[in-house]
Amino acid sequence: MVYDNMQGKKFREEKILTIPNLISLFRLILIPVFIIMFVNAQSQMDYYKAAGVLAVSALSDLVDGKIARHFNQVTRLGVILDPVADKLTHISAAICLSMRYPLMYLVAGILFLKEGYMLIKGVKSIKSGNSLQKAEWFGKACTVVVFCIFLFLMVGWNISNYISDFLILFSAAALVFSWVSYIRVYRSM
């Protein structure tokens, strides 16, 4: 075992290809699959299939963290790979959904700004000798809200503009809330 110098966390360094890391890599592979399926969708069934790929990604996100902790397979690579897969999946889904819902560009913009901020703060944290900031409850809750709304918007073929706009604005609000909460966490470090 190798211990992180700042927080005493145990990392399993001898294995890079752990099951959680493979799941995260699988989620990264699902991103172009999802984009191709969504962009080429010609029927509602095609959108259901694309939503199924996104749902598999979301569910595997839940599983990889539980496996990593339960079987002591937390690695430095996994600590980076898992959130990267999350963020790229969110941004890809938001951009794709913007093709059907123009207001979704707002969510995509917030995602770019929030994740850019988190990336800069993460790099600064590492350079100063600290470990990466772990996901907080508000970040996890935001991820669940955003995934659920994205999935609903993909399969909700005949929903009214009022409902879709409300859901998009709700996801934007969840992202802003999470971002502001992380800003407070980083300022207190």
Condensed summary:
Helices cover 75% and strands 2% of the residues.
Key phrases:
single chain; 189 residues; two-stranded antiparallel ribbon; 6 helices; 2 strands
Description of the structure:
With 189 residues, the chain is an all-alpha fold. It has one domain (2-188): CDP-alcohol phosphotransferase transmembrane (TM) domain (Four Helix Bundle (Hemerythrin (Met), subunit A)). 75% of the residues lie in helices and 2% in strands. Strands 1-2 form a two-stranded antiparallel ribbon. Strand 1 (2-3) and strand 2 form a beta hairpin. The longest helix has 28 residues, at 161-188.
Give the tally of β-strands.
2
Share in β-strands: under 5%
Here the CATH topology equals Four Helix Bundle (Hemerythrin (Met), subunit A)
- Classify the secondary structure makeup into a structural class: mainly alpha
CATH architecture group name? Up-down Bundle
Q: Mind telling me the CATH class?
A: Mainly Alpha
SSE order, one letter for each helix or strand: EEHHHHHH
Blueprint (SSEs and pairs):
Layout (H helix, E strand, L loop, with lengths): L1 E2 L6 E2 L7 H21 L4 H27 L5 H23 L5 H24 L9 H19 L5 H28 L1
Antiparallel strand pairs: 1-2
